[in-house]
Write a structure and sequence with these properties.
The protein is mostly helical. Helix content is 81%, strand content 0%.
């Protein structure tokens, strides 16, 4: 338990970094789809999408996941502290699926094969917000 607070701090910073990517990448997808007729612009957006996903999102995802697993390994009693952790982990699993779906859409957009609209990506951009709210409430309030 000596290092638990340090791991927790690292976990929170990693989570914030990961969420930044999860919030911003779909916004880039909106611009990508709505301005697909402007090839020079789209080429720049493709570079931004790749850098955001690969250099911020993927490392932040792994840092969040590994630090979270480390905290559970250090304190497995968390599973006996109520349903809040189970609900949080369910939201995290959905967030992970969302992360990989963004990678899927990035590849489709990269190859000009994506048929989703800017309107779709605007709505899809709300998913991480809802999951983040659930995660934060479960961790802070522990209502269950």
């Amino acid at each position: 338990m000596e290092y638990y607070s340090w791991i927790l701090a690292f976990h929170i910073v990693s989570f914030i970094s990961w969420m930044a990517m999860l919030f911003y990448l779909p916004r880039l997808y909106v611009y990508h789809t709505e301005f697909k007729d402007k090839k020079d612009f789209v080429e720049i957006v493709k570079i931004q999408e790749a850098k955001l996903y690969n250099f911020i999102g993927v490392p932040a995802f792994w840092a969040t996941l590994l630090s979270g697993l480390a905290m559970i390994a250090i304190n497995p009693g968390l599973f006996k502290s109520g349903m809040w952790l189970h609900i949080k982990l369910t939201a995290v699993i959905l967030l992970i699926a969302y992360h990989f779906s963004l990678g899927y859409f990035r590849k489709k957009l990269l190859n000009d094969e994506c048929t989703k609209s800017g309107k779709f990506f605007r709505a899809y951009n709300e998913v991480p917000t809802i999951l983040m709210i659930i995660i934060v409430v479960m961790v802070i309030v522990k209502p269950i």
